[in-house]
Write a structure and sequence with these properties.
The chain is an alpha+beta fold. It has 5 helices and 12 strands. It has helices at 20-30, 56-63, 145-167, 203-208, 220-224; strands at 2-7, 35-43, 68-77, 84-92, 96-104, 119-128, 131-139, 190-195, 217-219, 249-254, 261-266, 278-282. The strands form 2 sheets. A 6-stranded mixed beta sheet has the order 3-4-2-1-12-11.
């Protein structure tokens, strides 16, 4: 099972060109993905996408006819009569059993000194050879550490609740079949990926991966590439947001999937976005 995560910067490359086809081609060159998780996908933001009000979700659907595409809009608004959306996307060649969209908290304990935006975690539970797997993709707040920490805690708590539901699923009766109460594809097998805007040395990373807390996540890079430093995934070719390249795009897995992690790879050559794509390969 191959998965790729990539913050696409609304499909804008370091050269300033917006090109969804280039993003899909770049992902395919990294691996024949079963699941593709993309962040910063835009609908009707002409200022971002080259002065054209394009629907990037539909464009990606057209480019991936063998994949089912689900979109989670962190922002869904209608200024001046035009509906605009911005968020995260999951495209899966594997059957999608369930879709969930988790609005993440954005506390304002003080007057923010920089712009911020709402954030979301998009979740698709997919069918694999060994059972359902919950794929979660997100893009946490960049400029406000209070919000980013709250969002990290919210994701961890929601994952804990999802694991509890898998261990103690609701009882359903004959009359519940084919109703909203029908049996759900609960699972403790989970993959969390995206642009977290934190590094491995951060408090947020430590909180998410703390083995002393219930249902911790594990950094797949450290499992597959033991002892090797994380390669840079941001600001490698574009210093608009800072002079030094950092690693802030991760694949985390639940403890139940640690033994399936086979390979994690970062494409450090592509310049199709200001971030680098990451591949996770799981054993069947």
């Amino acid at each position: 099972m191959k998965l790729i995560t990539w913050n696409t910067q609304w499909c804008k490359g370091v050269d300033g060109v917006v090109d969804a086809q280039r993003i899909i081609d770049g992902a395919r060159s990294l691996g024949d993905f079963d699941v593709l998780c993309l962040q910063e996908i835009a609908i009707n933001y002409p200022h971002l996408t080259g002065h054209h009000a394009t629907d990037q979700v539909q464009i990606i659907r057209d480019l991936l006819p063998d994949h089912e595409v689900v979109f989670g809009a962190a922002i869904d608004e209608r200024p001046k009569g035009i509906r605009q959306q911005f968020g995260t996307l999951i495209a899966s060649r594997l059957p999608i059993l369930q879709v969930q969209r988790l609005a993440l908290p954005s506390p304002c304990e003080a007057i923010p000194d920089r712009a911020w935006m709402p954030r979301i975690c998009t979740v698709a539970t997919v069918a694999t050879d060994w059972g359902p797997v919950r794929v979660m993709t997100t893009h946490l707040e960049y400029s406000n550490i209070i919000q980013r920490q709250a969002q990290t805690i919210a994701i961890r708590h929601w994952h804990q609740l999802a694991c509890q539901q898998a261990m103690r699923p609701a009882k359903t009766g004959f009359d519940d079949a084919h109703t909203p109460y029908q049996t759900k594809p609960h699972t403790i097998d989970a993959i969390l990926c995206g642009d977290f805007n934190f590094e491995a040395s951060s408090h947020e990373y430590q909180d998410l991966t703390d083995p002393n807390k219930a249902d911790p996540f594990w950094d797949s890079w450290t499992i597959a590439n033991r002892g090797q430093p994380h390669p840079p995934t941001f600001r490698l070719y574009d210093d608009a947001y800072g002079p030094d390249a950092i690693s802030c795009d991760f694949f985390f897995v639940s403890e139940s999937l640690k033994h399936r992690v086979d390979k994690v790879q970062v494409d450090t050559l592509t310049q199709a976005s200001d971030h680098q794509p990451v591949l996770l390969d799981l054993r069947q």
